[in-house]
Amino acid sequence: MSLFAPSVAFVDLETTGTRAAVDGITEIGIVRVDADPAGGPPRIEEWSTLVDPEAPIPPAIQALTGITDAMVRGAPTFPSIAGEVLARLEGAVFVAHNARFDYGFLKHAFARVSRPFSARVLCTVKLSRRLFPEAPSHGLDAVVERHGLDVAQRHRALGDARALWLFAQAIYACRPADVVDEAVKRILKLPSLPPQLPADALDAIPDAPGVYLFYGDNPLPLYIGKSTNLRERVAAHFSSDWRRETDLRLSAEIRRIEVEPTAGELGALLREATLVKARMPAHNRALRRKADAGVMRWEPGREPAFVPAAAVDAQEVACGYGPFSSRRGMRECLVALAREHALCWNRLGLERRAGPCFARQVRRCAGACEGAESPAAHDDRLAKALAAHAIPPWPFDGVALIREASDDGARVDVHVLRDWCWLGTARDDGELAALREAPPRPVFDPDVTKLLLRTWAKAPSRFLPAASSGRG
Q1: Number of C-alpha atoms within 13 angstroms, CB side, residue 84?
Q2: From the DSSP assignment, how many helices (H) and strands (E) are in the chain?
Q3: Rounded to whole angstroms, what are the CA distances from 62 to 77, 97, 229?
Q4: Are 288 and 276 a contacting pair, CB within 8 Å?
Q5: First vs last Cα of the chain: how many Å apart?
Q6: pLDDT digits over 458-470, tens only?
Q7: How many CB atoms lie within 10 A of CB 200?
Q8: How many Å apart are CA 165 and CA 169, to the nearest integer?
Q9: Against a cut of 0.90, is the pTM above it?
Q10: Which of 11, 78, 287, 411 sits a CA distance of 20 to 30 A from 273?
Q11: What is the pLDDT of residues 236-265, one digit of tens each?
């Protein structure tokens, strides 16, 4: 059995609940399997311990696991065993059933004691689904029954960890090793690193949000990307299936990788949008097209007009509609509105024709082009149709802040904003004070404005007036 590693740790946790950020661990079970370099039988080491969660265990959880408050009273707390747990997991593929749960709990537990932890994670639920797609269920009870595994102490940490080790042996017994290995490879998204990169090129990349930069022989980057998990996303570029032609070209040209972690997804999106336009990487086509983007300006009695981004004053962004990725994008929006609301193509500037517009001739225009509708009535309807595309006034008197914290709370970024523009991000109180007291002049960026407008529409409460410290 390989599971693509010389060392594999089968892990199960029992907890006080399902919320990794607030609930505690009550028991840890680990079955570590280390391959024999000489080709002999693997070395298997089992370890488990009860853990004092320093909080009551809910009755329903006690009934499910059999672990009571009395049992964990006097057990070690997680901070006291963190070093041992880390040592038992070091260098091993982390295998768990519904691995996101167990891995997430341990990540939060280690973060609370300021211990970094990351591992390659293999979920046996995903593995079961990939190898046995015809099976009706992939829960651990179903897996145990399907493969006839001899498991004692279900819902206890070591018992469930042993079940996973038995499952791993069972799948290699009933499926060809290359089939299992390919399934594991796809789940782990194991990269086929280009030969010009060092073998440990991914080791220093964190499981955190941020942006990454690929470099070739020149000082300018080849590609800039963002992700909520940098290590996963970078590795995906080098998977052997080459789903995108860009990834194949990058693998041939790349010489080094840089990453810039952020507290969350918003920070990664903001940083990517601005970095791409500042550095102009060869393989980022979509975000480079800033020159084509802009807003639409319109007032009653006039045709809608496209204003390129470079000509937009940030303080006047709210007088426009959009933003649009191009003049063509604005036209497509107007065409759609004309069809939906029977608007006149002549008055929208979509046609230059004497007499009735084409839409009127096919009875899809209310007739402003031939006097059947007054210009004022048409423009009133147009104003209502455009309302959904209007850029709203900046809702603050000056600067606003968005506070973004990492999942483990170890990092806090404060994004400083004004007039739907990003002024910068502060990592500490000094940087925040400088940005608040002497903010740079806002510069309109259509992609940033779109991002901030989407954020405002979904969660306006995230925006804090500048009077708030933003770092509480």
Answers
A1: 13
A2: 16, 15
A3: 18, 20, 34
A4: yes
A5: 50
A6: 999 999 998 644 4
A7: 8
A8: 6
A9: no
A10: 411
A11: 888 654 456 677 788 889 999 999 999 999
